[in-house]
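Aim 2 progress. For Kinesin-like protein KIF23, the working sequence is reproduced below.
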Amino acid sequence: MSTKPGKTPRRVNFQKSSDPLQVFCRIRPLQNAYEESCISVLSSTTIQLTPPDGSNPRYFNNKEVQYVFKKIFDTDSDQKQIYMEVAHPLVDNLIHGKNGLLLTYGVTGSGKTYTMNGSPTDGGIMTRCIDVLFNSILAYQPPRHTFKPDKMNGFEILSSDEIKQVRGVKTLGVKKNVECRVKDEEKIEQVDEDNVYSVFVSYVEIYNNSVYDLLEEIPEGGTGDKSKSTPLNNRLIREDSCQNMYVHGANEIEVTTAEEALQVLYKGQARKKMARTLCNKESSRSHSVFMIRLVQVRLLY
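Predicted structure tokens for this construct:
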């Protein structure tokens, strides 16, 4: 049912000029050709929702509603375009010392996982961010173990002797092949050549008001998939000396290539709490946060 002629649809603005948060909308293609879409793209920033015939008036009240976003990505928008407009500026900011946050929000089956992870031949936002980051800093990375997390949301710089004493990096046992994929060759051109850059990643899950480290080292033993059979420990959220919040005790893994970073990402994803729904056979039951920290220090000559 549609609104009466001449009646102005209700308008909801998700993107106010004074709001530092940018909200984008991606429209997923219909799965069946015979389905009729209730979404109309009015402009590059506005969509209109029209309740389908037979919809419950208790929820829709038979009214059309318009929603305003920073930008609308229609069904023809590809992964590369979405990365360049949504996430590429955040990678640029990261390399230049600024924090950034990107999250996906939507009902189960709306395409959040595809938008973030993509496929081996057409990567999503997360894989492209990792590719572009390492493409940009490849020539400016110090030896592994130059920096060490201090467990209080900061890092220590190790001496050459201390670096030699550090043991080899323990692998996370990920079997997923990340080599057979199409990499994004984009990179940030303006990189400070007087700095060295090291990348650390962590991955936490928020479930039932508890926080878990998806990269927690789990003792060997038992049968089956140890990452799913052994419960993870609940972690505390604390405040550091600069009043920044962090997950105390969460593992921060140093990665020196995009492939290493993706191995860590996929290992954490395998430990997430999943369940089957009517719309999605593997739906996440929690919120998860994959954090990329870029440690950079100026060289002294």
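The helical segments are 57-60, 79-95, 112-117, 125-137, 160-165, 226-229, 258-270. This observation will guide construct design in the next reporting period.
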